[in-house]
């Protein structure tokens, strides 16, 4: 009986060993089969494209060359690529994009100038305009160069660096004495001219305001009148200019950006008042003398010749009208003085007659 029990235990052990072996081999076999299937699927999906192509939806599509973008989802030829708009858009590399990039704008109002125009294959290149600089390569606008108050410049302004001013040494420099002498001489000459004009004008009035005297002083009077009364013409001047043109003009004369921004904000939504205030600010800084000449010459230097011509014509017409009214007044005044002189002469003659009349009576 003990031998039978031993055989029974041996059979049970063999059955259990066989069962465990099957449980271990089945998962290994299944995992091995899945790995083989995955490798086959990967090998089936593998697509090789060239450097001038890209993969989209398990197929190779052609990239567009520089200056072009695709017009279809998956181009097969360059005929499926469209060019960028010249002067407005560009694309500087082969691509699989459907939109071109916008060209850079070199805004003169921000102190920029165009170095290289935008093409379909290259973006525009900008640089700071004359008398402007920008320290950072990524700056958004160029700043006005510093003007040295004492006129001593250590280093001139460039497109990337500001002006470096040199400190004035103690005492008067050699050229200072020469400058003072020149100033005194110029002052003496100016005083002599003024005295000469006054004497000439006095003689001119004495002679009855006739002949060529009035014509010779007409041009001088016109220029002086415009200078003296330019502030009265500011509304008419800015009416011929846009807000951007006024900004460009005052920036040209070194009106600071904070001052410009403050005036714009103080007169928000009123472009006319913004232009007037900006121009008045420049006129206050410049002063009365020479303002008219500075205005016209600066506008022409800034390529605003048509605006300069309109303003010049309008101001001359206004001053001419004022001149005519002045001459009319002078004529009336001259006639009144002439009548007074004739009346005085008649009175003097009558007095002489009265004086001689009694003498003749005494002789009788």
Q: How would you describe the overall organization of this protein?
A:
The structure is a single chain. With 364 residues, the protein is mainly α. Among the domains are: 50-126, Tumor Necrosis Factor Receptor, subunit A, domain 2, CATH 2.10.50; 130-166; 217-350, Death Domain, Fas, CATH 1.10.533. The protein contains 9 helices and 12 strands. The strands form 6 sheets. Strands 1-2 form a two-stranded antiparallel ribbon. It has a two-stranded antiparallel sheet with strand order 3-4. α3 packs across α9, α5 packs parallel to α7 and α6 packs across α7 (271-286). It is elongated.
The coarse silhouette is elongated
Number of helices: 9
**Strand adjacency order, main sheet:** 1-2
**At the first level of CATH, what is the class of the domain at 217-350?**
Mainly Alpha
Q: What's the alpha carbon Rg, rounded to whole Å?
A: 47 Å
What is the fold-level CATH name, i.e. the topology of the domain at 217-350? Death Domain, Fas
- Mean pLDDT comes to 76
The CATH homologous superfamily of the domain at 217-350 is named Death Domain, Fas
Which CATH architecture of the domain at 217-350?
Answer: Orthogonal Bundle
Largest sheet: 2 strands, antiparallel
The count of β-strands is 12
Strand content: 5-15%
Percentage of helical residues? 55-70%
Element-by-element helix/strand order: HEEEEEEEEEEEEHHHHHHHH
- Cα-to-Cα separation, first versus last residue: 213 Å
What class do helices, strands and sheet pairing give?
A: mainly alpha
Oligomeric form of this entry?
single chain
């Amino acid at each position: 009986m003990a031998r039978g029990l031993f055989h029974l235990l041996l059979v049970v052990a063999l059955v259990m060993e066989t069962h465990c072996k099957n449980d271990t081999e089945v998962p290994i076999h299944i995992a091995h089969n899945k790995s083989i299937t995955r490798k086959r699927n990967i090998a089936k999906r593998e697509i090789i494209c060239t450097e001038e192509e890209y993969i989209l939806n398990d197929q190779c599509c052609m990239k567009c060359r520089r200056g072009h973008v695709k017009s279809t989802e998956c181009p097969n030829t360059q005929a499926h690529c469209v060019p960028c708009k010249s002067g407005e858009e560009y694309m500087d590399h082969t691509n699989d994009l459907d939109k071109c990039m916008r060209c850079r704008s070199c805004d003169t109002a921000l102190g920029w100038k165009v170095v290289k125009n935008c093409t379909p294959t290259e973006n525009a290149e900008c640089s700071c305009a004359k008398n402007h600089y920008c320290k950072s390569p990524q700056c958004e606008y160029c700043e006005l160069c510093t003007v040295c108050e004492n006129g001593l410049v250590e280093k001139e302004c460039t497109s990337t660096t500001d002006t470096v001013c040199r400190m004035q040494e103690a005492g008067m420099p050699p050229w200072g004495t020469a400058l003072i002498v020149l100033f005194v001489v110029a002052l003496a000459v100016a005083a002599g001219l003024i005295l000469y004009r006054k004497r000439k004008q006095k003689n001119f009035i004495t002679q009855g305001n006739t002949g060529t005297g009035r014509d010779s002083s007409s041009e001088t009077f016109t220029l002086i009148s415009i200078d003296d009364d330019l502030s009265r013409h500011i509304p008419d001047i800015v009416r011929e200019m846009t807000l951007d043109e006024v900004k460009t003009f005052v920036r040209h004369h070194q009106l600071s950006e904070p001052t410009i921004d403050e005036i714009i904000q103080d007169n928000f939504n009123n472009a006319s008042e913004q232009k007037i205030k900006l121009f008045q600010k420049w006129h206050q800084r410049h002063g009365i003398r020479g303002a008219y000449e500075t205005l016209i010459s600066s506008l022409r230097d800034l390529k605003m010749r048509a605006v300069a011509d309109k303003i010049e014509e309008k101001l001359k017409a206004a001053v001419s009208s004022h001149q005519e009214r002045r001459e009319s007044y002078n004529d009336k005044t001259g006639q009144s003085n002439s009548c007074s002189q004739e009346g005085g002469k008649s009175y003097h003659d009558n007095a002489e007659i009265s004086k001689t009349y009694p003498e003749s009576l005494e002789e009788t």
